[in-house]
Design brief:
34 helices, 47% helix
C-alpha cells in the first residue's frame, strides 16, 4: 500500500504546479494565521519589554538596589562568618544573576566620646571623669561608631595620614582582651572639619552598655575623601547612616574588617552589630520573560534568610516594581488577546471558505477519481501535499512576518510617544515558533476539513448535489444550536464572575482562557445561525418578488434560495469582518475615551491639588486668598476631603468617604457625565446650596483688644475650665483659654484677642465670638451646671457689654458629641451678679468621653437643620437607608445630621465601589464643625483648578501649585500623557487594533474577490444559457448585482450590528485598569465613526469593482462558447 501512496505524490505536486493560483489566497491566509499566532508572543513581548523599561525608568536606580541587613548580631569573626555564609548562599541561589555589584558592610553600636586628645597627647580623660559624664544629657554628648565596608579604600582618597592597619587583639581565655591597645581609625574629611580633628588625635570611647572593657582609645591615622561622592556605592544603608549621623554630633570611624572582628570585637564582645549587604541591581539583565523569575528569587531569598537569621530585614523597590509589571501585564494584555482571538477566528474561517471553494471546483474531479477505483485516503493524498506545503511555509515565514510588522509598527504615530519615532525592541523566542506551529497546524486542518467531507463523492452523488445541494454540515447536525447554547452559557458565566480575571484560592490572578474565547464563540454562533435562517429568508423574498414582471429578481432570489451555501459563506466572511472591525473600532474609541474620562475623574476636571493646608500660625488668611490668585489659574474651588462614620461611634461598622464642596464655585471647575446621576451637576449643586450659611456669633467691636465673661459654678468645682472660640473675616477660628473655675462665687475671665508668640494665629477683623464652652481638666467630667453673665469687650474707649443673657433666643446648645443630647440652657432670674438681674445656666449631663460641652451664640435657630447630602448608592445599600431618610454621621469627632437629598452612582474623584461616599455643602459643614471648641480647625484641604495653560506654561503652573500648597497635584493633561505613553495602557492596544484592521481588510477583501471569481467560473454555463434564452446584458448584470448586494448588505449590516452589541455586552466586564482596579468612571461605548466609515467605504468600493467586473464578464460571454462547455 505504501508504494501506492508514494506514487500519488508526483501527481499531487503536478496538480499543485498547474493550479498554483488557487493556492495563493490559501497561502496568504495561512501566513496571516501563523503570523497572528506568533505575534501573541512577538508583539506581546515587545510591548511587555517597553512596559518593563518604563517601570524601571520611573524608579531611581538606587531604589532598585537590594539592601540586606542582619540586625543586633554578635561582632566576633565566627558569628560574622556564619551570617555571611548564609547570606552569600541565598544571594547566589536566588538573585546573583541580575546583580552587578555587592558591598558588604559592618556597623557597630553607638559609643559615647568622653573626650578628645589633640595632637597625639596622652590619656584624654580620667576614669573619674568618665563616671561623672555618663550622667550628662545624652543629646549633648559626642558619639561615634565603628564601621567597615568592602572596597572602602578603593573608593576613597587619603587626604592626610595613612590608612589604618589591621589590629588583632588576643584574648585571655576568659572572654576578655589580653590588652587594650589603641584602635587605629580613619574619618571623613567633612567630619574632621566639623569636629576640628586631625591625624594623630585620639578619642576616648565609652560603651553605653555593660561590657568587659569600660572604655578604649581610638587614634585617627587617616583622613579620607570620597573619590566620587555621586557614585551609587555611597547610597547604601551604611553610608546613608554615616552621612546622616555626621550632622548629629557623631564621629563615624572606619576600621578594616580584621580590626572590626578581631580587635574591636575582642575589646567589646557585647557590642551589637548590623551586618549589611548592598546589592547593585542591573535592570538590563531583567527582561519581560524572566521578570517573574527575578521576583520569585527575591521572595525566596527573603523567606530563606528570615527563617535562618534571627534578626533580618531587606529593603528594595525592585519587588514592588516587578509586581506592578506583572499586574499591568496581566490586565494590559486582555484587549490584545480578545482582538487576536477574533481575528484568528476570521482567518481560520477564511481558510475553510477558500478550501471549500477549491474543493467545490474540483468536486467533479473527485467524483471521477472515486469512479475509477480511488478510495478516500488516495483522494486525500492529492490534497495533503498542497496543504502541507502551505502549512510548512506558514510555520517558517509567519514569525518573520510578525517580526517585521512589529518592528515597523514602532515607527507609526501609535508608538511615537514611547519609542520617539524608533522601532520597537523585537526578538523571536522559541515560544513564537511554537505558536506559529499551532497556527500552521490549525491552517492545515482547516484546509483538509472540506476535502474530508468530499471524499464520499461518486458520479451519482455529484450529479445529485448539482441538482439540489445538501444542507450544511453545521446545520444538518445542529452544531449551530449547540454553539449558541455554549456561547449563552459562557456569557452567563461571565455575568456571574463579573470579569475575565479569576483569582485562585492563594490570591493569584489569571485570565480565564475559556471566557476569553467567549466573544469569538458568540460571534461564530450567530454566524452559524445565519446558515439556518438565510435559505428561509431567501425563499420568503422569492415569494414576494414572483409577483413582479421582471425576470431578473426571480432568477436572483431563486438562486439564493436553491443553493444558498456559497452566498452564506461569503456573507459570513463579510459579517465576521464587519463585526470585528466594528468591535475593534468601538473598543478602541471606548478605551480612548475612558482614558480621557479617567484622567478627568482623577483630577476632578482639570487640576486637583490635594493635601493643601493653611498655616496654623501667623496672620490669618482665607483658603481662597491663599490659593485663589496663583497666576495661570482661571477658576478655583475649595473642598474638604475626609471620612464620615455612620452613627455616633467613631469606629463604627460603616464609614464613607466625605467630600464637602462649595456649590457656588464647584460647578465651574468639575468634570461631570450624564450617567453619574439622574440630575445634572448644576442640579446637584442646587440641592446642597439649600444649606444657606448665615453669619453667627456675637460681633466684637472694631478695635477690640480683649474680651471677657462672668462665670459662676452651680456647685463647688475644681476641675473645670472655661473656653471660648472666635472666628474672623477669613472663616478662621481660634480657641481661647479663659480661665479655671475656683470656688463657688462669680469670677471674671478676660483674655487678649491677639495672642503673642511665633505659633499663634493672628485673627483678622471683624471678629465674632462663636461659642463658650466648659471642659474638664481631669479624666472625668461629671454632670453639672455653670452660670454665665455679661460678655464684655475691651476697646481703646473702654469696656463695653456685648451680651447680657437676658434671653436665650439666639443661643443653642452644641449638640455634636456623645452625651450632649441631654445638655440644656435656660435663663435664670434666681442667680445673678446684681439684684434683679439674670444669668444663663448651662446644664450638662454625664460625659463618658470627657469632651468639651458648651453653647453657641448669635444663632438663628435652637436646633440646626440637617445638612442636605448627595449620597452614593453604595452608601445607602450599606446603611439600609433610602432617599429622603436622615443620616447621623460622625465627622472629625462631631456628630452631624444629614438629609439624603439625592442619590448618585458616581462623583468626580470619589470611589463608589469601596465604602461609598457623601457630598455636602463646604461652607455649611465647616461653619457647623468649627463653631464648637476643638483642638483644631476644619478647613478646606484641597482645591480644584481650571486653567487654559498648555505645554511649558502648564508645567510651570503645576510646579507653582505644588510649591505653594506643599500638596499633591493631579493634572488631567499629565495623566492623559502618561496613559498615552504607557505601553500597557494605550500604545499597546492601539497597535493591536491597527493590526486587526489590516488583517480584517486583507482577509475580507481577498476572500470576497477570490470567492466571487471562483463562483463566476462555476456559473459560466448557467449565465451562458440565460444569455442564449434572450436575457439582456442589463438583466444579467441586475442578477449579479442583486446577488452580491444581498450578500454585502446582510454581511455588513448584520456584522455592524453584532460588533456594536458585542462592544456593549463586553465592555462592562473589561472594566479593569492596568492595576486590576475597577475603571472609574465606567466605560461608555464610543463609536469611532472615522474608522467605521473608512472600513465600510473600502469594502463598498471593492464590492462595486467586483460586481462591475462580474457583470461585464457575464454580459460579454459568448453563447457558442457556453454551448461548447457541455457537461465539463
Amino acid at each position: 500500500m505504501l508504494p501506492g501512496f508514494l506514487s500519488l505524490w508526483p501527481l499531487a505536486l503536478r496538480r499543485l504546479r498547474w493550479r498554483w493560483r488557487l493556492f495563493v489566497p490559501v497561502l496568504i491566509g495561512a501566513l496571516l494565521a501563523s503570523a497572528l499566532m506568533s505575534s501573541v508572543f512577538i508583539y506581546g513581548d515587545s510591548v511587555r519589554e517597553l512596559g518593563l523599561e518604563r517601570q524601571f525608568s520611573e524608579a531611581r536606580p538606587e531604589d532598585l538596589d537590594i539592601s540586606l541587613v542582619s540586625y543586633y548580631a554578635p561582632p566576633d569573626a565566627a558569628s560574622y562568618a556564619t551570617i555571611r555564609a548564609e547570606v552569600d548562599t541565598a544571594i547566589e541561589r536566588n538573585v546573583a544573576w541580575f546583580v552587578q555589584g555587592r558591598t558588604r558592610a559592618m556597623e557597630g553600636a553607638t559609643f559615647y566620646v568622653n573626650g578628645f586628645g589633640r595632637g597625639g597627647q596622652g590619656p584624654v580623660i580620667s576614669e573619674e571623669t568618665i563616671k561623672g559624664t555618663e550622667q550628662a544629657k545624652l543629646s549633648a554628648r559626642p558619639r561615634t561608631f565603628f564601621f567597615n565596608a568592602t572596597e572602602f579604600e578603593r573608593k576613597t582618597t587619603v587626604v592626610a595620614g595613612e590608612r589604618p592597619r589591621a589590629l588583632t587583639v588576643q584574648g585571655d581565655g576568659q572572654s576578655r582582651p589580653a590588652s587594650t591597645p589603641e584602635i587605629p581609625v580613619a574619618i571623613f574629611d567633612e567630619t574632621a572639619a566639623a569636629r576640628q580633628l586631625a591625624v594623630g588625635d585620639r578619642m576616648l570611647i565609652v560603651p553605653h552598655w555593660d561590657d568587659v572593657s569600660p572604655h578604649a582609645v581610638a587614634r585617627i591615622t587617616a583622613i579620607v575623601r570620597r573619590t566620587d561622592p555621586k557614585e551609587r556605592y555611597w547610597q547604601t544603608k551604611t553610608f546613608s547612616y554615616v552621612a546622616k549621623s555626621q550632622g548629629d554630633n557623631f564621629t563615624p570611624v572606619y576600621v578594616p574588617e580584621e580590626t572590626f572582628t578581631g580587635g574591636v570585637a575582642r575589646i567589646f564582645p557585647r557590642m551589637l552589630t548590623d551586618y549589611s549587604w548592598a546589592l547593585t541591581v542591573d535592570p538590563t539583565k531583567i527582561d519581560a520573560n524572566n521578570a517573574s523569575t527575578a521576583k520569585f528569587g527575591l521572595e525566596r531569598m527573603t523567606s530563606q534568610l528570615r527563617s535562618r537569621l534571627k534578626n533580618y530585614n531587606d529593603q528594595t523597590r525592585l519587588g514592588r516594581v516587578l509586581s506592578e509589571f506583572e499586574t499591568k501585564d496581566l490586565f494590559g494584555r486582555i484587549p490584545l488577546l480578545i482582538v487576536t482571538a477574533l481575528i484568528l477566528g476570521i482567518v481560520f474561517y477564511y481558510l475553510i471558505m477558500i478550501a471549500n471553494v477549491i474543493v467545490d471546483k474540483n468536486r467533479g474531479e473527485i467524483a471521477l477519481l472515486t469512479s475509477r477505483g480511488a478510495d478516500g485516503s488516495q483522494v486525500m493524498t492529492l490534497y495533503v501535499g498542497g496543504s502541507a506545503l502551505v502549512a510548512v511555509a506558514a510555520f517558517f515565514l509567519g514569525p518573520l512576518i510578525a517580526y517585521v510588522a512589529t518592528k515597523v509598527i514602532g515607527y507609526t504615530p501609535v508608538f511615537s510617544e514611547v519609542t520617539d519615532g524608533g522601532s520597537l525592541p523585537v526578538s523571536i523566542a522559541a515560544s513564537a515558533y511554537g505558536m506559529s506551529l499551532l497556527g500552521a497546524a490549525i491552517s492545515f486542518a482547516a484546509l483538509l476539513f472540506p476535502t474530508v467531507s468530499a471524499t464520499w463523492l461518486n458520479p451519482l452523488r455529484y450529479k445529485a448535489s448539482l441538482t439540489r445541494p445538501a444542507a450544511s454540515f453545521f446545520t444538518r447536525y445542529y452544531i449551530d444550536i449547540f454553539l449558541g447554547i455554549l456561547a449563552a452559557l459562557l456569557y452567563w458565566e461571565l455575568t456571574q464572575r463579573g470579569s475575565l480575571v479569576t483569582t485562585t484560592f492563594i490570591g493569584e490572578r489569571n485570565v480565564d482562557k475559556a471566557l476569553l474565547a467567549a466573544p469569538a464563540l458568540f460571534l461564530f454562533a450567530i454566524g452559524l445561525l445565519l446558515l439556518r435562517f438565510f435559505p428561509l429568508a431567501m425563499r420568503g423574498a422569492m415569494a414576494l418578488v414572483t409577483a413582479l414582471r421582471a425576470a431578473w429578481p426571480v432568477l436572483g432570489f431563486s438562486t439564493l434560495a436553491r443553493n444558498p451555501t456559497p452566498y452564506v459563506r461569503l456573507a459570513l466572511l463579510l459579517m465576521f469582518a464587519a463585526s470585528v472591525a466594528m468591535f475593534a473600532a468601538n473598543f478602541g474609541a471606548t478605551l480612548e475615551r475612558s482614558y480621557r474620562d479617567r484622567a478627568a475623574y482623577a483630577s476632578g476636571g482639570d487640576i486637583l491639588v490635594k493635601n493643601a493646608f493653611l498655616p496654623a500660625s501667623g496672620a490669618s488668611v482665607s483658603f481662597e486668598g491663599r490659593f485663589g490668585s496663583i497666576a495661570g489659574t482661571e477658576t478655583m474651588a475649595p473642598a474638604y476631603r475626609g471620612q464620615a462614620f455612620f452613627g455616633q461611634a467613631l469606629f463604627s461598622s460603616s464609614d464613607f468617604s466625605l467630600l464637602a464642596v462649595d456649590p457656588a464655585s464647584f460647578g465651574k471647575t468639575s468634570y461631570f457625565r450624564d450617567d453619574f446621576s439622574g440630575r445634572s451637576l448644576d442640579g446637584l449643586m442646587e440641592v446642597i446650596a439649600a444649606d444657606v450659611v448665615r453669619e453667627e456669633g456675637l460681633a466684637l467691636p472694631q478695635g477690640a483688644t480683649a474680651f471677657g465673661v462672668w462665670v459662676r459654678p452651680a456647685t463647688a468645682q475644681r476641675n473645670l475650665a472655661v473656653r471660648a472660640r472666635i472666628g474672623d473675616a477669613n472663616r478662621r477660628y481660634r480657641d481661647y483659654e479663659m480661665g479655671r473655675i475656683t470656688g463657688t462665687d462669680w469670677q471674671y475671665f478676660e483674655t487678649p484677642v491677639q495672642a503673642t508668640g511665633p505659633r499663634a494665629l493672628q485673627l483678622q477683623a471683624p471678629l465674632r465670638l462663636v461659642s463658650l464652652s466648659v471642659r474638664s481638666t481631669s479624666a472625668t467630667f461629671p454632670p453639672g451646671a455653670v452660670y454665665f453673665d455679661e460678655v464684655t469687650a475691651t476697646t481703646p474707649a473702654g469696656r463695653q457689654t456685648i451680651e447680657t443673657f437676658a434671653e436665650d433666643r439666639r443661643l443653642a446648645v452644641i449638640n455634636d458629641s456623645m452625651g450632649a443630647a441631654t445638655d440644656g440652657i435656660e435663663v435664670s432670674s434666681t442667680v445673678s451678679r446684681e439684684s434683679g438681674g439674670r444669668s444663663l445656666a448651662f446644664i450638662w449631663g454625664p460625659n463618658p468621653l470627657a469632651s468639651t460641652r458648651g453653647f453657641l451664640l448669635g444663632v438663628e435657630t435652637k436646633a440646626r437643620a440637617p445638612l442636605e447630602a448627595i449620597v452614593s448608592r453604595k452608601a445607602l445599600d450599606d446603611t439600609g437607608l433610602a432617599k429622603g431618610d436622615r443620616l447621623r454621621l460622625s465627622i472629625a469627632g462631631h456628630i452631624v445630621t444629614a438629609h439624603v437629598s439625592e442619590v448618585v452612582d458616581f462623583f468626580p474623584t470619589m470611589d463608589p465601589y469601596d465604602d461609598g461616599f457623601i457630598v455636602v455643602n463646604l461652607p455649611a459643614l465647616t461653619q457647623r464643625l468649627n463653631a464648637a471648641d476643638s483642638a483644631f480647625e476644619i478647613l478646606p484641604n484641597e482645591f480644584w483648578v481650571t486653567s487654559k495653560a498648555l505645554g511649558a506654561e502648564r508645567e510651570r503652573l503645576v510646579t507653582t501649585l505644588q510649591r505653594e500648597s506643599n500638596g499633591r497635584v493631579s493634572d488631567r493633561q499629565a495623566l492623559q500623557r502618561d496613559f498615552r505613553a504607557d505601553p500597557f495602557i494605550s500604545a499597546g492596544w492601539r497597535g493591536a487594533l491597527n493590526i486587526a484592521f489590516v488583517a480584517v481588510l486583507i482577509t475580507s477583501l481577498l476572500g470576497f474577490g477570490v470567492y466571487a471569481y471562483m463562483l463566476a467560473q462555476q456559473r459560466r454555463m448557467e449565465f451562458g444559457l440565460l444569455s442564449s434564452m434572450g436575457l439582456s446584458p442589463i438583466a444579467l448584470a441586475s442578477v449579479v448585482l442583486l446577488e452580491q448586494a444581498v450578500v454585502v448588505v446582510i454581511g455588513l449590516g448584520l456584522g455592524g450590528w453584532i460588533g456594536y452589541e458585542l462592544t456593549s455586552l463586553l465592555m462592562p466586564y473589561l472594566g479593569l485598569t492596568e492595576e486590576g482596579a475597577r475603571v472609574l468612571p465606567p466605560f461608555v461605548t464610543e463609536m469611532n465613526w472615522t474608522a467605521i466609515i473608512a472600513t465600510y467605504a473600502i469594502m463598498a468600493g471593492v464590492f462595486l469593482v467586483v460586481t462591475g467586473a462580474l457583470a461585464l464578464y457575464y454580459s460579454r460571454f459568448a453563447i457558442p462558447r457556453a454551448m461548447r462547455f457541455g457537461d465539463s
